[in-house]
């Protein structure tokens, strides 16, 4: 990967793993409608890749009785960084789910898992086999790569502090509302504006997962294709101020919010200073003015269901 590692050797977001009760419906959505490609399956697991990404997969689906987030996976520069980070976390009292070792999932590699401060499972890995991929061509309205993941937390200051202290993430920008306080922290582990964001919500859950498209035309074509398929659109199309990226949000069949985006800002680490953006300013939410104004109803769509996987390690 071209992303420069942060101070603890973390390079980028690899994949987000979801457990779903409507497994067959979800597989069909992500392959037939969303534009990912199933590159492997193993019993009740489906590995879904983005055509332009060297990652083995960007979404993993697992058939389960309960909907939950299984884990969020980040890459590390090498095995030494994996070992050092596991030792650092363990020494700080962070609960390790697994010790560093060979991974049994698609692409192999070397990694470990732990619970973050909110109880979600996080995986750090290195030496994962690179997948043969290709350039996404002009007009192809399919995801090039996974862009970022956003999670809900009841205490976003605490969650932000955890990722800063233990994983070396840095704050890029904050969304704020005078009568509610900070609503979202955008966090980076490389020069992309955010690989992770932490949103204020009523419970721990997935807020949304975002996928990078080739360009504006492909982003709009993809948005239109998903709309024509009858998938519920939550918000968009528009362009955010924080990150300067485009957005179109949809609900997958399990009620997880998924986003198409493009042109996420890449930052000059030496010159960047975090901004605090007022969400009551219409330009903060949508510079173009093409999306519906943000409302409580729109916001609630991304609160998602209470995550049943909090402090419960996934079985695989």
From TrEMBL:
**Coiled-coil residue windows:** none
An example Pfam family from this entry, by short name, is: Glyoxalase
The VOC domain extends over: 12-127, 145-263
The signal peptide stretch is none
Protein name as catalogued: VOC family protein
Q: Which PROSITE patterns match?
A: VOC (PS51819)
Q: Which InterPro entries does UniProt cross-reference here?
A: Glyas_Bleomycin-R_OHBP_Dase, Glyas_Fos-R_dOase_dom, GlyoxalaseI/FosfomycinResist, VOC_core
> Per the UniProt entry, what species is this protein from, by scientific name?
Streptomyces neyagawaensis
